[in-house]
Structures
1.
Amino acid sequence: MGNQDIYVGLDIGTTSIKVIVAEFIQGQMNIIGVGSQRSAGLSRGVIVDIDKAVSAIRQAVSQAEEKASIKIDNVVVGIPANMLQIEQVTGMIAVGDASKEITDADVQAVASAALVRNLPPERESLTLTPTEFIVDGFDDIKDPRGMIGVRLEMHGILFTVPKTVLHNTKKALTKAGLAIRAVVVSPLATAQVALSDGEQDFGTVLIDIGGGQSTAAVIHDHKLKFTSVDQEGGEFVTKDISVVLNTGFKDAEKLKRDYGNADSLATREDETFPVTVVGKTEPVMVSEKYLSEIIEARLGQIFKRLNGALQQANALQLPGGIVITGGTTAIPGIVELAQDIFGRDVKRFIPDEMGLRHPAFTQALGLIQYAANLTDIDLLVGSVTTTPTIAPKPAAAAHEPEPDPTAPESEPEPKKPSALRRFFGNFFE
C-alpha cells in the first residue's frame, strides 16, 4: 500500500462489514476490490466483542485483497455518531515579528490552542476541522501559510466521541494487523457521495438507516452541524418479522428481502407466499400486505423519532430536503413511508459504481472520497488530535480539551423570525 493514490474504506456496521479498495488516477476513482462479511461482535454500531470483530474484519479485508490483488496495510475507517458532540472552537497565537511568514508549525500551534479545554474523562477528541483562519484581523482565509502576520487565529469545528467507541475500533484494527490512515465521522463520509455539492452547501438532512441503528445528520456549508442517532435499524425489522410470524431469524431476513415493502398501501392481501413456521411441518401462507404492515410499523417508529429530533433542531425546512441511504433503504416503499412521516420530499441514494449498486455500500464509498478530498490544511490541523488523519505530522503542542458548551443540543435563540433562521441560530452562529 505504498501508493498514496490507493485508498481502502472500511465500514464496520452492525450487520455487515464492507471493505472497498479504490485507486485515483488523475482525480478519477476506480474501484479495484470489494469485500463484504457478516458482522460479529457489534451491537448498535459499536464494537462490544473485539476478538469477534477482528475475525470478521480480517475476512472482509481478505476478500478485498484477493479481488484487488494487493496487500492492505492501512484503512480509512468510520466512527458512528453515537453520543457525538459538535462544538465550535477558536485558537489564537502570536506568530512573531511582522517579517515572519506563517509556517506549518504555526498552523499546528494555533490548532493546538483551539483544543485547550477540559474534556470529561470518558470523552476523546476525534476530529478538528478548520473553518477559517484570521491573520492580523483579515478573515475568511483558508490557508495562511506563506503569509506575513503577527497574530494568527483559527476557527474550527471539534468532534468528540466516547473513549470506549474510539478505543475499541482502534484496538480491533490493530489486532487485525491494520494501520489507521484516517478516522472519519460516519455521516460526514456518507455525505461525500450521497449529497451533491449544492445539497451539502445549502443544507440537507441525511438519514442513514443501517442494520443496528439509524442516524440523521444535518449537513450545511459542507460541514456536519447536527446528528441524532436512533438505536434501531433494519435488524429490528427482521426481529419483528421473526416474532410475529413465528419463524427463524434467517428466514425472516429472507422474507424481508424477497417480499418486503415498507408501504402497506402498495401491497395486496391476495398476494401470498409460504413461511416456514417453528413447530409446524407445513409452511403457512402469509399475505404481502400483512408482512408490509409489520415492516411499516417498525420503520414508521424510527422515522417518527428522528422526525421529532429534527423538528426540535428546526432542521426540516432546509433547502436540500431529505436524502436517505444505508442498507435498510433497499426495502421497496421506504421512500413513500418517509415522505408521509416527514412531510417533505425524500429521495434515496444508491451508488452507481459497478458492483456497488446497493445503498449498503454508501458509507464505505464515502470514506474513500472523504479521505481523498482532504487538503494539506485539513491534514495539518487534524494532526494535533490524538487520532491520526493520513500520515500525521508531529503535533506542535499537547492539549487538554474541555466540555461542550455549544453542542448541537444547545439552547435555541429566544427570537424566532423563521424556522430556517432559528436553525441557523442554533448551529451556525
2.
Amino acid sequence: MEGNHNRIQSLDAIRGFALLGILVVNVFSFHSPHFMYGGIEMFYHTTLDGTLLAVVDVIFQASFYPLFSLLFGIGIYIMYERLTEKVNDRAKTILVRRMVVLGLIGLVHGLFIWYGDILLSYSIVGLITLWLVHKPIKSLMKWAAWMLGSVTLFMTLINYVSRDFLSEYRDGEAIQQSFALYTGSYQDILQRNLADWLVMFNPFQVILVILTILPMFLVGVVFVKAGWVYNPTEYRHVIKKLVIISFIIFIFFKFGPYAIGNPAWLDFLKQGIGGSFSSVFYFLLLLLIFSENRLIFLQRMLAAVGKLSLTNYLMQSVIAFIFFYGVGLNFYGELSVIQLMTYVFVVYTIQVILSAWYLKKFRYGPFEWIYRTLTYGKIGRLKRRA
C-alpha cells in the first residue's frame, strides 16, 4: 500500500510541476497575440526581455504540454488496467465517456474563456489512445516514432521552403483587432476568442496536434507497461541512462538552433523533437528523485497542485482572463517578461497554498468531482470524513 501511495504522489507531484510549466508558457498567449500573429518585438523590447524569452523557449516552450500528455497517457492506461479488473469489458466504455466529458469541458473552456484550451485535443487523442492500448511496447514505440518523426520532417521542410515569409511574418490587422477586442467588453472578448479558437482548431491544425501529442500519450502507456511507473527503483539503471540520453537530445534540439541564429524555420524541429525529449527528461528525472524519497517537501507541495490538476488548469485561465482582459485589470500587452514571470510566481504560489488547504477538507477538486460524477454517472462523496 505504501509503495502504491508513493507512486501516486510522485505522479501527482510531476503533474503539479507540469502545471507550473504550462502557466509559464500560457501567460504569454494571454498577454499578447504574438504566438499566433507574430510581431513579438512590439511587446518585448529590452535585452532582459530577450534573454528571458530565450530561457523560456529552451526550458519551457513545447516541453510541458508533451509532459502533461505523457502523464495523461500514464493515467489512461492505469485506469484501463484497474477498470478491466473491476468491470472487464465495460472498461473502455467508461473511459470513452470520460474522454467525451473532458472534451465538453474543454469546449466550454475554449469557447468562453481561452482559445488555447488543450483539453478538447486531449480528449480526441485519448480516444485514439484507447484504440491502441492493447498493442505491445514495440508496436507502440513504432507508432510514436513514426508519427512524431514524419510530422516533424514534413513541417520542417514546409517551414524551410517558407523561411523568408516566416522570418518576417506579422499580421498587423489581427494584432490590432486583438488589442481592440481583448481590451473591450465581454462580448468583444468572446468575439475575438472565437475567431482565434477557429484558427487553432482548423482541420490542419487538429491533425498536427494529434500527430504531435499522441506519440507522448503512447510513450506514457509504454512507461507503465515497462514497469517503470510502478517500480522505478527496480529499473533505475536503465532510467538513469534514458535520463542522460533524453537530456542530450533535449539540449541539442532546444539549444542548438541558437548557435545558428535560431531561425524560425527550425521551430517545429526544436519543439517537436526537443520538446518531446525534454518532457521525457523531466518526467524520468523527477520520477527517480521522488521515488527515492528525496525532496519530500517539494514533492508534497507539487503533489497538492497536481491532485487538483483540472481545477488548477482551468483556474489559471480564469485568473489570466480577469488579469489581462478588458473586463478585469486590462494588462493586455502592457507587461515586460520579468513582470509576467512575477505574475506566474504569485499565481502558482497561491495555487500551492490553496491546494494544500483545500485537500485537508475535500477528497477531489470541484472540477475533478464534476468530471468524476459525469464519468461514472453517480454522485460521489466530496468532503473528507472528520
3.
Amino acid sequence: MSTMQRSRPSETVAVVRPKRAFLRELLTFGFVGSIGTLIMVLGANLMRAWLGDSPITSVVVPGIVSTLTSYLANRFWTFRHRDSDGSGREVVVFFALNGIGILIQVACTGFTYYTLGLHGGIAYNLGLLAGVGLGAAFRYWSYRKWVFTPAAT
C-alpha cells in the first residue's frame, strides 16, 4: 500500500471528530434548551392562569429564570470545553443576548395577543412556542459566535 492510501483513515478521523463534537454540543444544547423551554412554558402558563399577569409579563419573568438555568447548564456542560476568560464578559454578553431572545419571544406572544387579537390558551401557547423556537435559533448562533468561543490552542 502506498503512503497516500494509509493517510486517508486518519484524515477521515480528523473530519469525524469535529462532527462528533459538534453533534454532542448540539444535542446537549438541545437538552438544556428543552429544560429552559419547560421552565418558560410552564412558568408562563402558571403566571397567566393563576396570577392573571399580562401575556408579556408572563413571558418575561419565566424567561429570566430560564436564562439563569440555561447559563449555568450551558457553561458547565454544553460548552465546558470552550474558554472562559473569567472577566464576567461572558455572563454580561450571555444575558444581553438572552434579553434579545426574550424580546423575540415577547414579540411573538404580543403579536398573537395584541395584533391578531387571539386571547385563548392555544393561541397564547402557539405564539409562545414560535417565540421560543426563533429565540432558540438566535441563541445557539449567538452563543457560539460571542459567548462560548472556541478554546485557545
4.
Amino acid sequence: MSAALPSLSTPRLVLKALQKHQAETLSELANGPEIADNTAAIPSPYTLETALTFIDGQEENFRSGQSLALGVHLRESDELIGVISLRLSAAHRSGHLGGWTAAHRRNQGYAAEAAGAIMAFGFTELMLHRVGSQCFARNKGSARVMEKIGLGYEGCMKGAFLKNGIHEDMLLYGLLRADWQAVS
C-alpha cells in the first residue's frame, strides 16, 4: 500500500492527514461532550500526548494496512471538526468504519458526508469487499449516520461491550461492495 495518505473531497469537506500543529485542537475536540462516552476506543481524557501519538502513527498505520484515519475539515475554512477512519483487514478485504464529530458541528450532516466518502474510497481504491461498523444501542446519532450512508442493520449483540462499568448492547451494520455499487 502507498505510504501517502489520501486526501478526499466532498461538497463541504476535505478529509486529509492530520498535522502535528493540529494536536492541541484534536485533543480539545476529542475531550468534548459525548466523544469518549459514545466510542469504544477513544480514551478519556484525550491528552495532547495521545493526539500527537495518533497523528504520528497515521501514515505507518496506512502503509502497513492497519487503518486509514483522516481529519475531517470544513472545505471553506479548513477548520478541523472530527476524525473518520477505516480499520482494515487485508485477510478479509474489509473495513470497520469509525469516527466522531465535534459537539458544535453535530446534526449538520458532516458525519454522514465524511463516512460516505471514506467508505467509497474503501470500495473503489482499496477494493474492500465489505465495510461494517457498530455503535452502542443508545447512540442514536451514530446509528442514523450508518443508515444514511447505506449500511444495513445486521443485529444487536446484547451486553457485548463493557463501558464505564456497564455492559452495553452493540448494534451491527454492514454493506458489501456489490450492494454499494448497485445503488451508487
